[in-house]
Amino acid sequence: MGKAFNNDEAPIDVAVIGGGPAGLSAATTLKQAGIARVVVFEREPEAGGIPRHCGHYPFGMREFKWPLKGPAYAAKLVARAKRAGVEFSLNTSVVEANRSGLLRVVTSAGPKSLSAKRVIYATGVRETPRSARLVSGPRVQGVLNTGALQSMVYLEGRRPFKRPVIIGTELVAFSAIMTCAHAGMKPVAMIEQNTSVTARWPTALFPWINNIPLLMETKLVEIKGGDRVREIVVRNGKGETRTIECDGVILTGQFVPEASLGRMGHIKVDPATRGPSVDQWGRCSDPTYFATGNLLRPVETAGRSWQEGKQTGLWVAADLAGKLPHYEQKAHPVRVEPTLIYAMPQRIYRNNLDAQDVAGMTHVQLRVVKPIKGELIASIGEHVIWRKNISAKPERRIEVPIAELDTSTSSNNQGEIVFSLVSQA
Ligand SMILES: Cc1cc2nc3c(=O)[nH]c(=O)nc-3n(C[C@H](O)[C@H](O)[C@H](O)COP(=O)(O)OP(=O)(O)OC[C@H]3O[C@@H](n4cnc5c(N)ncnc54)[C@H](O)[C@@H]3O)c2cc1C
Question: If you take atom 11 of ligand 1, which residue's CA is the nearest one?
Fold first, then answer.
């Protein structure tokens, strides 16, 4: 059975930073693979990550073959990890991550240092706060991201407002609608600055079902009020402005990986994903460190993050057994041209795997800035190594099979792989 972490015991084999679906699944897999000491460090009083405060369905179809609400799903993942023998250090923030797996953590008993043979970053994503969205107006109460709203509603039983406006139409915005319904709040509008809803159908029917006006091509420009939000000013595609009375603003989505630890430390952070730069086994620029789950790139579902964590657990176990390619081996850096936002992994080892080496990620993940139809091309220098016609929308996963990238044109196995998307419109 799992137990509370005690730093005086045997050395830690793998330290997992973050107890969300990805970290829990990596830790459980490592224990199941026979790794002796696996410790999850989680800053919250309980592990479970974001789903812990998403009090709605559907979570767990991939993991438990049954739809669960977020907290039940999180509790099942924690129970499974404990049964596998994972140790937990809760109320513990990792505040420094240094070379050789040396970590500095802060607990209620004060700071302490420890080390692990391997470290997995699994710190997830956060939504862009108001300060980074360039919305004018005074700093009034009642402006929240979805994550903060969900914590208030589901963990503290509070209702911060009654008639908010929801900004954005990514999947999480529909999670905000469900949170409002749960707490008896009635959103007065949902606002999207693009021409189409970002989340997939049938989620887009949610505002209609809940009788919430959906204003497309509309941008939030100002929040007005005294102590609290009183109204907002929005501008439509024709440049016309109008005010909407409301008592709260829910700023949803525009996710950013929670990579502060990496940025402050020694590992390389990719300016495109804003998460750690990794190879196809999730290895960071210091191969003692791996990264997994939504920290890798904004943004995927809990089920997908859980799946990635499981895979990372297998890779780290293989690495401890000496079955990953040596980190020094040459790898192709991966880059995207405008229209595409990012590519992950950012380094690909291609033609140099030994027979005993464990296979890594099967696909490169890409995202676009705006809806576009065109030809997606991968090239090394002048050579086109892969091409395909695609139709893509923002926040939708685009995957390119790594096995289909013909890197044989690059004699030294180091040529930069550049992805570009040529519009057909
Ligand atoms: C507000 C919000 C709502 C969402 N709603 C949904 C939804 O309804 N359905 C869905 O499928 N997906 C949803 N998502 C996507 C969500 O990111 C994934 O569901 C999933 O939680 C990702 O798992 P993860 O393990 O990568 O990260 P997380 O679940 O975010 O877990 C990361 C964990 O790391 C911990 N941590 C971070 N930094 C440190 C540190 N320095 N020291 C110690 N611990 C640390 C955090 O406390 C957290 O517990 C939502 C995301 C957000 C932000």
Answer: 301
